[in-house]
Amino acid sequence: MKLNLGCGNKKMYEYINIDKSKFANPDLVLDLEEGKLPYEDESISGIVATHILEHIQNIIPLMNECYRVLKKGGYMRIVVPQNEGIWADPTHVRAFSNLSFRYYCGYAFGDIYGITCRFEQVDSDFVDNEDGGELNITLKK
Question: How far apart, in whole angstroms, are the C-alpha atoms of residue 37 and residue 53?
Fold first, then answer.
């Protein structure tokens, strides 16, 4: 089983498409701000989060939940805007750099922020585009 978090109108075949808006017609209506995923520990083989994490006010509980539900060896693929594109959308509440996700990989100080996940970052890539670019990160449990 795989999850597509914040799917909007970009649903993925063979994924459970999750969005807080029922108008997106997702497989599961769920507000990711609540930080709880309704799945058993280590029951998910993959998670995709494309252009959603920059909208989450309190990202730490959600990242901890993603780690909890992922199977050992499972992946989390993340795409977030970067450069001037990050602040183009008035609903964005945070920016990311290529160093942002190290806190979810056992980096110092993570514990004091309540970060319990210990992903391994296996890939990081910047893609330039007309919106200012995006950062692509792959984390593995």
Answer: 15
Q: Where on the phi/psi map is residue 137: left (φ > 0), alpha (ψ -120 to 50), or beta?
A: beta
The number of folded domains in the chain is 1
Q: 55: closest CA among 39, 72, 79, 38?
A: 79
Count of Cβ atoms closer than 10 Å to residue 88 Cβ:
11
Give the DSSP H or E segment for 64: helix 59-69
Give the pLDDT confidence score for residue 68 in this predicted structure.
Answer: 98
3-state secondary structure of 57: coil
Q: Please state, rounded to an integer, the average pLDDT across all residues of the chain.
A: 93
Domain that holds residue 40: 2-140
Query: Quick check: 131 pLDDT over 80?
Result: no
